[in-house]
Amino acid sequence: MGQTLLPILVALPFAAAVVCLLLPTSQSVLQFVRLGVLGLVFPFALAICKVLSHGPLEAAGQWLRMDALSAYHLAVMMLVFVGGSCFSPVYFRKDIEEDHFSISRARRFGSLWFGALGAMTLVLSSNNLGILWVGVEASTLLTAFLICIHRTPASLEAMWKYLIICSVGVAFAFMGTLLAGASASGRLPATEALLWTHMMEIAPRLDPMLIKAGFIFLLVGYGTKAGLAPMHSWLPDAHSQAPAPVSALFSGFLLNSAFYCVLRYIPIVETALGHSGWSLRLLVFFGLLSILVSSAFMVMQKDLKRLLAYSTVEHIGIMAVGVGLGSAGAAASLFHLLNHSLGKTLAFLSAGRVGQLAGTNEIARLGGLLRGSFVWGVGLFWALLILSGVAPFAVFFSELQTLKAAADQGSWWTMGLFLFGVGVVFLAILRHAIHLAWAPSNRDVSANSSSWLEKIVVLCPLALLFMLGIWMPESLQRVIREAAAIIVMGGRQ
Amino acid sequence: MISLSQTWMDGLLVMLMLTNLILLGASRLGHGIRLIAIQGALLGALPILGGQHGWTARMLFLAVITIGLKAVVFPWFLHRALRAGEARREDNPFVGHTASVLAGLVMLTVATCLSARLPTVGAGHSMLVMPVALFMILTGPFLITSRRKALSQILGYVVLENGMYAFGLVMLQDVPALVELGILLDAFVALFVMGAAVHQINREFDHMDADQLDSLKG
Amino acid sequence: MNSLVWMLAGLILMVVGGFASAFFGVRRSRYTRQIGAWSLAAGCAMAMIPSCQTLWSGVSVQLALPWPITLGTFHVGLDPLSAFFAIPICGLSFLGAFYGMEYLPSNSKATGFAWAGYNLLVASMLLVVLARQAILFLTAWEIMALASFFLVAFENERESVRRAAWLYLVAAHVSAAFVAALFFCLGHYTGSLDFDAWSGGSSLPSGIGTVIFFLALVGFGIKAGFWPFHIWLPEAHPAAPSHVSAVMSGVMIKTGIYGLVRVLTFFDTPPMSWGWTLVGIGITSGVLGVLYALAQSDLKRLLAYHSVENIGIIAIGLGLGCLGLSTGRSLLAFVGFAGGLLHVLNHAVFKGLLFLGAGSVLHATGIRNTNRLGGLLKAMPVTGRTFFIGSLAICGLPPLNGFVSEFLIYFGAYHGAVAFHSGLIVSCLAVVLGMALIGGLAAAAFTKAFGIVFLGEPRSREAAAAHEAGPAMRAAMTILAIFCPMIALLASSILQLMAPVLSTVLHVSAGVLTSQLEETVYFLNQIVMISLFFGMVAILLLLLRRSLPGAKNVESAVTWDCGYARPSARMQYTASSFAQPIKALFAFLLGSHSHLTPPRGILPQAIASFTSTAPDRVNERFYHPIFEAILKGLRRVRVLQHGEVQLYVLYVAMTLVALLIWCLR
Amino acid sequence: MKLLSLIHPFLALLLAPLLLGVINRVKAVFAGRRGQPLLQAYYDIWKLLGKGAVYSRTTTWVFRAGPVIGLTAVISALMVLPFAGQSGVISFSCDFVVMAYLLGLARFFTIAAALDTGSSFEGMGASREAQFSALAEPALLLGLAALAVQSSSLSLSDIFTQLNLQAWMKVGPAILLVAAAMAVVLLAENSRIPVDDPNTHLELTMIHEVMVLDHGGPDFAYILYGAALKLWLFAALLVNVLMPVQASNVPVNFAVALTGMFVAAIGVGVVESIMARLRLLKVPQLLVGAAVLSTLALVLLLR
Question: In principle, which of A49, A402, C16, D228 could form an S-S bond with D17, CB 3.0–4.6 Å?
Fold first, then answer.
């Protein structure tokens, strides 16, 4: 079953990408993107169910493998893609009407969109650490051009920065992969080196120095792509210049796919170093740094999408802190991943729509979003509140779990700094949210109406986040526990 | 015991190091591209001359591909980009050329020190692999940081790639083609993508100075 | 059936009703307010019954439902302490709902949302006092903050309201952060997040108890409005609709007190330092609260600062109780906690009443500034009378309820003072001094508030055109006003009802408290006797006054103004001039700014002016500099993102090199 | 409750206006005048009770309630006061707090009644009254705390039973300090020089008198009577502190105490005659000074 399913999963998006290049009109490309992604949900869901019920799937001589951790990430990724894809026709409608979205652009958008999906699927389903890296690299290059679908000077600049910084980062990650492979050299047959499952098996015998150096390269490398401070600097530029669905994709999952790569290495490194917590401490350090640095930029932020981008840095930081705090923290972190992806996707989609209608992303010139019954305004306001961590939404609970993990470890400094950073972020976001909601503005967009589809796109994530806050299904808990166990000890109990 | 292949390999590595230092001091972009081509050729020679198990078909294939791409295709591609743009020289880098060479020496020292702490893998390898690879890995970002022209930054990136390539070729020769494929894919796509990006930037801005791309901040 | 199920059903009814009201509100239906108010009333009634039962019988009930979130169980419980806080919450919210029906604009879209927020606020407050598990408590705590945030932001067209709402939610969030830290700290040492596992906290390592206490003091103190954590209070309370201000000030800030008392129940014998801290904070809050209240000219701000004062009095009571526990003086402990907790109830009654009265004034005139009001007693007789009773009660004057609780605290203080215990005597005398000062200044503040607003002549056209509030608003105020003397007269029975509450707090069985209860009840009865005597004498004197020969010989005239024939309303003393001498006297504490442009020349052309403001010192001297420092620090960090890609790459590379060097060193 | 306790309230109700007469007579003697009859206050009250009233159109029921409640509160406060070795009619722990707060109630109503007229003069007086009483309250309650600490008991009656000659021997200076503080409070609460001048005719400088400018007829009679009772109350407190006679013979006790009362009245008269009125800005210092005296007494006691 897995032998055929996994390659198909990886191949399908690329096939869809090719199809996009053949479609005749912009409208049809966008419809294909929407329906195609919705269609892809079924095979993906099938694979995820298989993994969760029968254990890991393997294919292609163990080069492809999907366990609970990857299945969980895959599910989150599909949520983000579904949201973004449903939103794309809404968002680009205006561009099509104004003739800014020619067929070539539409084709490029569609194929890159599916290409990114394929590349990230490759990341999530590979057991070979080299293939893992190839997937990340491919997703970097594919998404680079998504940033500048609309070719403006600012978007080109953002793309250039993204390319340069992330290429360097991914190059470092490659070096890290090589070092990790080198640390296993002589202990694994060459044909099996870099297979994650095999690495895990011989992890206690890996060369500690080499694996340490390798992990540093990996952390800095993948961390650059994941947006950990201080390597996050490309992120606000890219997010603010990309079209809304692309920003949502970036924040919602692209960063997490890079972070997923770091997660893959953690059990190997920790086992190799005798569970000394060395790599976990590094993660906590970078996580806290990300929270604090991003909070600084959110306080006086003028641009709505940049605000959201920094918020992403903060949340990646929270996830890093969580993973760094052991198994309870890892579970919290994974739960947070889901919550953040949902919330941030909604936030970017809403911000994109609001900004598009108002003609500006400058917070000071927006306002009054809650006055009318403009569903995107409501979505943006609530998404901001949710991301800042108000109860009873799920983000609040995942942050509490992280705190609890910190307290149980007795790492009071982590707890204190975490609370401080999250507090600063809260007051920053709240200030902007209140302004957006009620301040008088001459660019009032609240009178716009929205279709039922748009309402669904807004209300579903909100309802889901609310539900996950007050009621978390047992099955989801189980999945998260399993996935967290993989992060902490490679899946062995 | 020092074998012949090891001597060869040491020589190649030292030459890589030297090209690197020269690159740090080079102000003409065309000159830099030629140095990159030389580096590519040296890298292609590494598996052939430094191989421990004699010549296998795979190695030959690798060498050919490497030389073909790194010494011929990329430089040609970069030359084309150079001709498309206005600038020929890296006139006013953030760090001057002489200072860059000195910084290069510092980086070499750092790389040597760091690699001394790492265990050598596989008895037969040259002691120089790690320091040279690290040196190149440090030089790459340094070039990107200290130069203004977008093209110079691509050169820096290629140096970075080359460093890892050297490391990968020597250390992980036996690992299936996957890794090499990764390297090539990376370098290949990166160059094309970046080249295309440079092309677009050229069209949009009429210049290739990356340091003027700073309208997005805060 | 477990009475908690009944209570939870009430909560659900409220919330559902609130959202139904919002739903109808969007359609501008006229049922909006009926649905909102009646669902809340029904829910409150449903919650009230089990609470009263528990308080009456002293039997606590618990209910643990499975709650499928990672750290949580839905563990609720109703013990006398919870019931004691739940009753005023239900009662005041109940009356507030009827008041709100008339107070809120009847068919605006926002009204429905206001009901949703109000009902959610009440439900979450009740859940806070019911929760027996940290995560549930925190969730309810946060929902409470969020619901009231939307109510504070009700009049969001105004910039100042938006700012107040921001400040309020930030303060609430900081409070939640401290409470979370507190709970997780306890959780770390006990391995459980259940309140039950925490009682008997003596198992904690030494020193940790004090850390926990201070976390609680800050976390719950922010919500309660202890000085210096009170700064959100005078901003947020005036901004909300008045019945919401009444509920926020009357009962919501008491959830902070509840939290603090609940944490105190986790410990058997608190160290002396806790009591000192509480007493110190209480006195500071009380004196500074009342001084700032005196300096305000905005009626609702004045009331808000009075909440700080009353919270201070409550803290003094709790502090004395703690000192009693630490020194093993059971009577002091009993009286201290009894006074503090009874003041919680009393403050809910009279502060609720006063805010509702202020709301009626605002509703009738649209003015908050006392300097522009006046003479409202004639136009608004019911509002005026009830406000008057509330003023007397809040000043702690006999024979009303405020006096009883303050008397208990006085008694505790004097009792401690004559005990010749070195750790006790100084703090007790400080309490006497502080309470006396607070009492005198409160009287000044409320003669000002009542006298300037309701007496004399109207100082503005709006005030002259004022009308009495509607029947529901009047009814709400009247009921609360009746409670003021009622509680005072029934004080001894109420204290007996409170015995299970106090036994929960003091960790003793109710039977042990008999002797303390007897003694307290004895002097409360004496007070009742004096009150009755007072009433008799008053009636006698009134009758005498009536029966005097000149009683029918009454003339009307203008007020005597030293022969000035045409006094105008502008000649009256204003609120600011009334408070000026005290403001001047305490200028060293208040730090008020005044700005004077004197008239110049013999025939002054330019308009002379005098303005005086009393911005909060804590804000100016403490929070503002801290905030500025943080912002300055953050601004430094912002230099990182200057737009140059080269340096961005440098960050990446430097991070790598630094890490490599650090790890391979 | 002993029947003998009931004597004191009746004495107070009967003799209080006489104290005013004594004070006025002393002042007249100092000024070299013959002065009013000793019973002038009784005549005034009687005359006022017979008159009609003039009410400002601005006023409301608050204005009329002021005098009644003021008088009631003072009468009720008298109930806890021990006199001549007899305990108060009602006596319990911290009864003095009730006394102080009943006086506070009276003051609240007086101030409210003053503000009810809408007159700027009465507002001025009200503002001053509020300020000074807020400062007098701590002095009084701290002084009582000192006495409570000295006697280790909490009700006025017990305190003054404990305050005997032995106590004077032991902690005389402290008690003297308390007495001094009480005397200042007496002068302030009863609007006497140096705090206020009951005889002034310049409204701008008055405190208590200006608040009752608009009251007339029976209302003013109540106010006058209330003021006399209040003077009696404070004088009785002072006498209790300074003259701890507890002879077994009840009539002797009463005689001594009554003498003490009139000595106190003479003392007030003397102070009024020989001192000038303080500037209003200095009054708070005097009151804070009284609180400091009480605190000093406490320090001495706790030493």
Answer: D228
